[in-house]
Structures are given as C-alpha cells and as structure tokens.
Amino acid sequence: MRAPPRLYALVAAAVLSVVGTALVPTGATASAASASATTTASVAPADAPSKRSMPSMPSKASKASKASKATEPLRPNAAAPPKLRASGNKLVDENGTTRRLLGVNRSGGEFMCVQGYGIFDGPVDDASVKAIADWKVNAVRIPLNEECWLGLSHIDPAYGGTNYIAAVKALVARLEAHGITPIVELHWSHGTYTGGDSHCPDTAYATCQKPMPNARYTPAFWTSVAQTFKSDQAVVFDLFNEPFPDRATSDLTAAWKCWRDGGSCPGIDFQVAGMQTLLNAIRAAGAKNLVLIPGVAYSNDLRQWLTYKPNDPAGNLAAAWHTYNFNTCSSESCFNEQLAPVIAQVPFVAGEIGENTCSHGYIDRVMAWLDAKGASYLGWTWNTWDCSSGPSLISDYNGTPTNFGVGLRDHLKGMQ
Asked: Which phi and psi angles does 337 have, rounded to 5°?
C-alpha cells in the first residue's frame, strides 16, 4: 500500500486548529510499559487509505510434506503459533503439518512514528488483538518504518529507537498469545527518489513508499530485526512492501537485476540494497525465520521471481504477492499464467488483497483461486478508515466489518 503522507499532516493540523488538543496523549513515552497500552490518533489517518483511491494508481523445499499429513489453517487462541518453514511449495510447522497464513494487515507502524503522532494507529491492546482473533485470523502483518526502528535523529525519541522496538515486540507477543503468526514487514524506508511514481520527491525521509530499499539503512534495519526475533522462529519476515524498480526504468531485465542485486540502479537516485543483500543480513544475524520476498510492480508482478530468486542458505523463502481490483494482474487468466508457475515451486503468500468497491466481489474470487492452490492471503487492512479509499476491513476496533470486510470475515470463519 502507498500513501501521500502530507494529507494526514494537513488533516491533523486542521483538527488541532479547531480543538487545540494534541493528537496523542502528552507526556506519554513509548517505553516498554507504555508500549503495551493503546497509542491512538484523534483523527483517522487520511494519508494511508488515500493511496488506494488515486485513479492513477499503477498496477498494483526439501521434499513436500507427506500426503498423510493434514492441511489446516493455523488456529487462533492456540498455545503458540507454529515455527514455519518452507517445504517444497508448502509451509509446514515443526511436525511437518502443512499450514496456511490467513489473516489481516495492521497498518500504522509505518507512518504514525515518522509523522510524530504515536507508534500505532488505534488500539493494539489485548482486547483489540482478541477482536482480530475472533475473525479466525491466524496471521497479522505489521508494517514498519526503518527510520523509527533505528531511532534516527529526526524521529521523536518517544516513538523511535528502543521505544518503537519495545512497542513492536509487545504487539508481537500479544499476537502470539492468541496463537497468531506475526509478520513484521518493512513498509517505508529512506532515500531520495524523483523518478516515475515518486510519492515524496522532496525528501529522503521514510515518509512514503520508495521503489527499493536503500543501502544506507535497510541492511542495518534487517540486521537489528533479525537479532531481535531470531530466537522466535514463529515470527515471519517480509523484506519490503511493494518494490517498483520497473517504474524507474523501461528495461525490465535491469529492474529485476536491481531487485535482486541492488547497487546503482537505473532511474533510482540512491544506492539500492537488493533482496539478496537483505536476506544475507538476516541470515548473518543468525535468524532462520521464514522470509517473504515480494515481486516488482508494487508486488503484483512475479513473472521473473523464479529467475531472480535470491539464494538462501537456510532454504526458508516464500514468494509474496499483492493484488487489488485495479491492478494489472487481477484476473484468473493472469493468475493462471503468471502466478501458478511460482506457486508450483515455492510457498506463496498474498500479503495484501483488497478492493476499493466497498464490497468483496474481487477478493471473493481471489480467495477462491488461492484456496484451490493451497496458498496464503491477508486482507488490507484492520484499520478504521473508509472502505473505498483504504480499503478498510473494519468500522471499529471491536471488529465490526465494513461491507468489504464482511467478505474476508465470513470466508475465514467459514473455513473453521
């Protein structure tokens, strides 16, 4: 998901001028203790959902498990989520049972901190996590901001560095207490970018989606994340939200080489950290956790994913894909042509599925197709934004679904 970050700031400023109050409780620090409490803005963040409403939005292993093993979703409220690993084109747990990740995204950690309003958008306490679990969700994807995690100097210390990390760790622990697999994902990153589809060309700060990770900070981010969670292999790592090096150059081969190898990439202003570099950083830190690696074209194009697949000494990779009704690859014929070859060889996780219709006709089709393939998927997003511009699954944090969210909720509950 992409977002024009200034929109939230403008809305926030307007609210402040009217009510004269801070967007977050004053005097609160995001210490390990306060991280377990709710961190909320007083207005819905208009910046994040609006990214899906823009009409110019671009198109967005070892042996397989034995047939005698049961195939089942992870169960919410279990004692603990499983330690997942890739086995052929399936995800399996410690016992070799085939598993699928079926859940939601929980946006906020990518934008609230860098804009100075908190760490998460809305509550992330136990009650709010239980509401997620009540949808029979078994996985939650948590978008993050590398500048906030690393505590760079322009980030409010209350929302960055050790305080930010403590808040993320607390949310991860809360999810795991409900048997939910946490997927930690790098969403916004550093780097000046002025090329095609640039979203914040006037700043290098991590205030929007960039086409690729950067060599300056992203390897350090993943080294730190890996060190933080390497003892907990129930945590899944998602390398980078939605790469789009193909929007910076018309040379698709060069774009895929940039995607894997990084360096000086055509059309990109900064030194890029490729997927291989980031994977190397994670493994060098001693983490063997499952790693999700997205494609190009905002994770919607996986046609050359197998050709440029990074080498993983741990053999624990899955392909990540995003799909919305306005993407280029949004039909079953495209799924069969472009995705089926990937799904045949590696585990497959649709990290974001959604539509901007305030209905669920598109995701119903997507879920049916992925179900038939035994693949995983997560809806965007568990935030109380507008269903057409988010799109948002819920209208309140008790889990009341929007017309869009009804489709995902009923489908997940019907699978139990």
From this structure: -80, -45
Write down the pTM of the prediction. 0.85
**296 has a pLDDT exceeding 70:** yes
pLDDT at 56 exceeding the cut of 80: no
Cα gap 388→26, rounded to integer Å: 33
Q: How confident is the model at residue 389 (pLDDT cuts 50, 70, 90)?
A: confident
Residue 1: the pLDDT is: 58
3-state SS record for the chain: CCCCCHHHHHHHHHHHHHHCCCCCCCCCCCCHHHHCCCECCCCCCCHHHHCCCCCCCCCCCCCCCCCCCCEEECCCCCCCCCCCEEECCEEECCCCCEEECEEEECCCCCCCCCCCCCCCCECCCHHHHHHHHCCCCCEEEEEEEHHHHHCCCCCCHHHCCHHHHHHHHHHHHHHHHCCCEEEEEEEECCCCCCCCCCCCCCCCCCCCCCCCCECCCHHHHHHHHHHHHCCCCCCEEECCCCCCHHHCCCCHHHHHHHHHHCECCCCCCCCECCHHHHHHHHHHCCCCCCEEEECECCCCECCCCCCCCCCCCCCCEEEEEEEECCCCCCCHHHHHHHHHHHHCCCCEEEEEEECCCCCCHHHHHHHHHHHHHCCEEEECCCCCCCCCCCCCCECCCCCCECHHHHHHHHHHHHCC
Residue from 219, 134, 123, 224 nearest 178 by CA: 134
Whether 320 contacts 349, CB under 8 Å = yes
Q: How far is residue 416's CA from residue 401's CA, in Å, rounded to a whole number?
A: 18
Average pLDDT over residues 331-356: 98
Partners of 181 in the β-ladder = 139
pLDDT at 251 over 60: yes
**Distance separating alpha carbons of residues 27 and 12, to the nearest angstrom:** 19
What is the predicted pLDDT for the residue at 55? Answer: 29
The stretch 315-332 carries a mean pLDDT of 98
User: Sign of the C-alpha dihedral, residues 220, 225, 231, 237?
Assistant: negative
Mean pLDDT of 238-260: 98
Using the Cα atoms of residue 355, residue 360, residue 365 and residue 366 in order, give the sign of their dihedral: positive
